């Protein structure tokens, strides 16, 4: 019998110590794209939630550009690394599928390369939309399940029994934002290097 897949928690506990070094280029590229879209859609980020904040690369950028940022991740080890980078930024350990915040708490919510670990990414997007105020923005960068190279990565992950949830196509990401009640939904498909087919989708909460 094949061994069960490793859990995301176990994988990131092992990766946390060297994560910034090993994934520096990918993290920089995806954070930059996510934040560029956020800045294009809002003049002032205000109170911003970063879901799946990891070691805090994007949180640091948000703080440096004047946002009142809050980071959330389910990995204690990744949050410990984020704490070393950001001494004063609030960090919360929790799951994207059940955000521990009241409705309409934030001016914006962002997530970067995290929701493909979720069994139901669309449910996580509904949570992001729930905690954003009317007029606020949600920006979601993730693997594009419709990209040929990404499909190859997903196949390799399944063969090697690596942790994985559900990866949506760019169009399905946009649909999930609309189903969560957001309007003016936009999606950009893009690529990082030869391997990573990605999408950044965004929407605004009516009101």
TrEMBL record:
InterPro entries: Methyltransf_11 (IPR013216), Methyltransf_Superfamily (IPR050508), SAM-dependent_MTases_sf (IPR029063). Its EC number is 2.1.1.163. It comes from the Bacteria. Residues 49-139 form the Methyltransferase type domain. Keywords: Methyltransferase, Transferase, Ubiquinone. GO terms for molecular function: demethylmenaquinone methyltransferase activity. It is an enzyme of class 2 (transferase). One of its GO terms (biological process) is methylation. It holds the Pfam family Methyltransf_11. This is Ubiquinone/menaquinone biosynthesis C-methyltransferase UbiE. The gene is ubiE_2.
């Amino acid at each position: 019998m094949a061994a069960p897949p490793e859990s995301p928690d176990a994988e990131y506990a092992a990766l946390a110590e060297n994560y910034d070094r090993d994934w520096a280029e990918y993290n920089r590229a995806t954070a930059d794209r996510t934040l560029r879209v956020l800045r294009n859609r809002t003049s002032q980020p205000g109170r911003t939630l970063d879901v799946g904040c990891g070691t805090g690369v994007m949180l640091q950028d948000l703080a440096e550009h004047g946002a009142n940022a809050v980071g959330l991740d389910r990995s204690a080890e990744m949050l410990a690394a984020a704490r070393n980078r950001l001494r004063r930024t609030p960090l919360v350990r929790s799951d994207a599928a059940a955000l521990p915040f009241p409705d309409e708490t934030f001016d914006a919510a962002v997530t970067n390369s995290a929701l493909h670990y979720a069994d139901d990414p669309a449910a996580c997007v509904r949570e992001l939309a729930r905690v954003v105020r009317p007029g606020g923005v949600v920006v979601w960068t993730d693997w594009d399940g419709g990209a040929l190279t990404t499909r190859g990565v997903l196949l390799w992950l399944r063969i090697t029994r690596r942790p994985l949830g559900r990866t949506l196509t760019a169009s399905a990401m946009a649909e999930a934002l609309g189903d969560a009640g957001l309007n003016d939904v936009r999606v950009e498909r893009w690529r990082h290097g030869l391997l990573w087919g990605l999408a950044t989708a965004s929407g605004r909460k009516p009101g």
